[in-house]
Amino acid sequence: MKAEQILHLTTPNTSYLIALMSTGQPVHLYYGKRLAHRQNWDGLLPHFEAGYNTMVTYDRNYPGYGLDDVCLETSGLGKGDFREPMVELTAPDGQMVTDFKIRSWAQFEGKKPIPDLPSSYGECTTTQIKLYDAVLDVELILSYSSFKEYDVIARSAWIKNNGTKPLTIRRLMSMQLDLQSSCDQLLTFDGMWGNERLMHSHPLTAGTILNDSKTGFSGARHNPLVILKQKQTTEMKGDCYGCNLLYSGNHAEYCETTYTNKVRLLAGINPSGFCWQLQPEECFYAPEAVLTFSDKGLNGLSQNYHDFVNNCIVRGEWKNKPRPIVINNWEATEFDFTEASLLKMAKTAADLGIELFVLDDGWFGKRNNDHCSLGDWQVNLQKLPSGLQGFAEKLKKLGMDFGLWVEPEMVNADSELYRTHPEWAVACPNRIPSESRNQYLLDLSREDVQQYLIAVFSELFVSADISYVKWDMNRNMSDMYAASLPPQQQGEFFHRYILGLYKVLDTLTAQFPKILFEGCASGGNRFDLGMLCYTPQIWTSDDTDARQRLAIQQGTSYGYPLSTISAHVSASPNFISLRNISLETRFNVAAFGVTGYELDVSRLSKVEKQTIEEQVVWYKKNRQFLQFGRFFRLESAEKKPVWQVVSQDGEQALLMLYQHTMQPGRPHERIIFQGLCSEKEYLVQGREQYINIAALGELVNRVLPFKLRQGGVVQAVLAGQYSIKLPEEQISAGGDLLCGWGILLPDQFAGNSYSEQLRLMEDNSSRIYYAKAKG
After folding, report:
1. Digit-coded pLDDT (tens) for 628-656
2. Which residues 6+ apart lie within 8 Å of 503 measured at CB?
C-alpha cells in the first residue's frame, strides 16, 4: 500500500500534511511546527503490516490495514472505524454505511464564500479534496484554506447528492483532526449567565469528551473554542492546538482518545436534534472551523487567533478601527427613565469625555417592564417626546453620538406583533409554549419573518442618526418546531433559524456599514466567530463585577481579541455580586477590552467624576494598542494575575497587576514583562491612580488633627471631595531585564510605618504600569 500523493499545506510557521492513499482515504500525517518541503515523507507514513484480532480489514489486499487505528481526514459508519464519525447519512434504502474514496483534488489561490454562511476571508491557498461514495452517488468535499500571513487553517466540508432520491444527513461535522499525539489535556470554556467562558482542563484518557450546546445558540454553557495541549504546556511555552467554530447555533466538539493513544477531534453542528433532507442535485454546507497550532504556549495560540479575528473575521468599516467609549443607561435606570433624566446623564458623560450614549431597553411600545411590547418597535413618545431623531440631535449638541438597543429575534405575547402574527412565534402544535424572560422566539427559519425584520429595522435605523446598535437576544430556544416545514424536515429547524439570522444580519450590516453593531445575548450567551462577522464586538457578560470579569475576560481572551470584548465600569457595590470594588480597579479591568460605563455618572461625587474624566483621557491616549496590541496572560512572581498588552513594534506596553487578597508578610513583589525589545531601555511608570479616603478606615485618624467617625457624614463628605493619590512608581530598566528577571515593586503597606513611598493595595485592587522605550 502506498501514498499516491502527499499534500503539504503551510502557513508562516506551521505545516499540515495529508497522504492520499491508494486505498482511497486521505490520511493525516502531521500538523505542527513548519517543516522544510521535501519530496520524500517516508518517515511520517504509517505502516500497516500488523493488524489485530478483531480488526475489520478495509481492503483484502492489505490485511493489516484497518481504519480504526489510522489517522484520517474524514470518517463514517460501517467500514471498521469505530470512533466518533465525521459523517452520518441515511440512504433512500435505509442503509447507513458510507465509504467515501478520493476522486480528485485541486488547489487554488484565495477562498470562496460558503453559501448562506459567514466565513473567513483573506490571502490564502485553498486545497480541496473531493471524495465519492459510488453506491450512494454522493460527493463529500473537504476544504482547507491555509492563510499566508496568519498561522490558521480554515476547514470546511460539504456534501452533494448526485442521486435521484432525497438523502438524510444525520451528521456532517466541519472538520476532523486525528493526531498521533502527545496531547494529554483538553481545555474548554464553560459557564452560565453571569459567569461565562471560564477555562476548565480535562485530562485525556481512553474515552470521549463532549463539549456542546443544545440551547439553539453557541451558548454560555460551553463555548465552541477548544484547545488541545500537553500537560507541560504553559502560557509561554509548549505545543498546543486550537479549534474554533465559525457558527452561532448548536455545536459539538468531540475529543476521543483511543486505546493506542491517538486523539480524534471533531467540530461542527451538533448532531443532537439535527437531520437534513438533502434533495437530488442539492448541496449541504457545514460551517467553517478555524484551526491553529502554537509551539509558543497558550499565549502564542491566542495571539494567532487575535490576529486572525481582527483581520480575517471582523470586516467592514470597523475592522481594526478603535471603538468609541460608550455610556449605557441600563444598570442606572432599567425601564424607569425620561428624556430629561437621560439627557442629564448624557450631559455629565459628555463633560467627562465619553463619546457615545446608548439608549437601552424600554424606549418603545409600552415597555415599562419586560412583560410586554417586544416586537412593537415604535418609539414611546411619553418617555421620549422628541422621538429618536430629536433625542439623537440633542445628544449631538452635547458632542455625543447616539446608540440604540434592540432585540429583533423576540416577541412578547402582550404585543401588537404577536396579536397580529401569533403564528410567527416558535411553538409546537398542541403544546403551550414555554416562556423565558416573559418572551417567545420569532421563527427566523421563515422567509416572511426574515423579510419583516429586515423591513422594520431598515426603517428604524434610518429614523435617527444612529451610530451604534446593541443587538440583544435574551433567551434560549424551547418548543422547537417550524410550522413552515413538513414533519420529515423538523430536524432542520435549529440550523434554518441560524441561517435566517445570518441573512437578516448580513442584509442590515451591508445596508448600514457605518453603524457599529455590538452583539449581546443575556451577556455572553452567543459569543462566537459567526456573530463577529457581523458585530465587531460582543457584550462579554452581564456580570460587570471586576473580580468576576477578571476570570470571564481572561477565559474569553484565549480565542477572542480584546477589540471584541466589551467591558464596562459599573456601580459599586455590584448589582450581581454585591461586591464593593474601587472605581480605579473597575476601570483597570475594563480597560483591557472595549471600555465603556454602565452607571449614572450624574449622581457621582466630585472626586468620582474627576477620576472618570482622567480615566477617559488615559484610555483615549492608549486605546489603539489596548484594543489591537499583543495580549499576554501572565502572573507576577508571587502568582498574582497579570495582564499585559504590548504594541506591535514592542516600543510600549501596559501591564495590570491584580491583587485578590491583601496579606502582610509577603516577599518583595516582582513583575515580568513580555514582548519588549531586549536591546532597548524603558521607563516604567505606574498609572496615576487614587484611593478613596473611606478605604483607609481608622488609619486616616492617625494623620488628621481631628477624629473621623467611620461611616459618618463628615467622612462621606470628605470622601466625595478628596482622594489620596497613590505613590508615584518609576524605574528605568532594559528590555532584557524587564522580560527576564523582571523588576521589584515598592513595598506594600501592611499595618506599620505608613509613608508616601508605600503602595496602598487593598483586597481586589490593582495597578497598571506603563513601559515606554526611551529615545
Report:
1. 999 999 987 778 899 999 999 999 999 99
2. 116, 450
CA distance 332 to 161: 55
pLDDT in tens, 321-344: 999 999 999 999 999 999 999 999
* DSSP helix/strand/coil, 26: strand
Answer for the pair 654, 775: CB distance below 8 angstroms, yes or no. no
Of 542, 543, 545, 600, the catalytic one is 542
Residue 104 and residue 130 in contact, taking contact as beta carbons nearer than 8 Å: yes
Give SS3 for 661.
coil
The C-alpha angle with vertex 187 and arms to 186 and 190, in degrees rounded to 5, equals: 130
Question: Is the pLDDT at 712 greater than 90, yes or no?
Answer: no
In terms of C-beta density within 10 A (0-12 exposed, 13-18 middle, 19 or more buried), how is residue 39 classed? Answer: exposed
Average pLDDT, the chain: 95
**What is the torsional sign of CA 710, 711, 717, 720?**
positive
Residue 86 CB coordination number (10 Å)? 28
Tens of pLDDT, residue by residue over 529-545, are 999 999 999 999 999 99
CA distance 34 to 587: 41
Inform me whether the pLDDT recorded for 520 exceeds 70: yes
CB within 8 Å of 93: residues ≥ 6 apart: none
Selection from 432, 516, 430, 437 nearest residue 476 by Cα: 437
Supply the angle between the helices 339-351 and 387-398 in degrees, to the nearest 10: 20
Instruction: Read off the pLDDT of residues 465-486 as tens digits, 9 standing for 90 and up.
Output: 999 999 999 999 999 999 999 9
Q: Is 238 left (phi over 0), alpha (psi -120 to 50) or beta?
A: left
Cell of 136: 450512494
pLDDT single digits (tens) 189-205: 999 999 999 999 999 99
Pairing outcome for strands 152-161 and 283-285: antiparallel
What residues contact residue 47 under an 8 Å CB cut-off, 6+ apart? none
Contact (Cβ atoms closer than 8 angstroms) between residue 254 and residue 84: yes
Helix (H) or strand (E) holding 143, with range, is: strand 138-147
Question: 158 in helix, strand or coil?
Answer: strand
Q: Is 542 among the catalytic positions?
A: yes
757 has pLDDT over 90: no
240 neighbors 297 (Cβ within 8 angstroms): yes
| pTM score above 0.90 | yes
Q: Is 60 helix (H, G, I), strand (E, B) or coil?
A: coil
Rg of the chain (C-alpha set): 28
- Is residue 444 within 8 Å of 497, Cβ to Cβ? yes
Catalytic residue among 472, 543, 545, 600: 472
Instruction: Reply yes or no on whether the pLDDT at 718 is more than 90.
Output: no
Grid cell in block for residue 676: 519588549
Count of positions (residues) in the chain: 775
**What's residue 1's pLDDT?**
63
Nearest Cα neighbor of 670 from 737, 735, 725 is 737
Residue 74 φ/ψ, nearest 5 degrees: -155, 165
Q: Which three cell numbers stand for residue 346?
A: 448624557
CA atoms within 13 A on the CB side of 296: 14
Question: How many beta carbons lie within 10 A of that of residue 431, not counting itself?
Answer: 10
In three-state form (DSSP H/G/I as H, E/B as E, the rest C), the secondary structure along 57-116 is CCCCCCCCCCHHHCCECCCCCCCCCCCCCCEEEECCCCCCCCCCEEEEEEEEECCCCCCC
The model's pLDDT over 392-408, given as tens digits with 9 standing for 90+, comes to 999 999 999 999 999 99
8-state DSSP, 425: B
Q: Is the pLDDT of residue 772 over 90?
A: yes
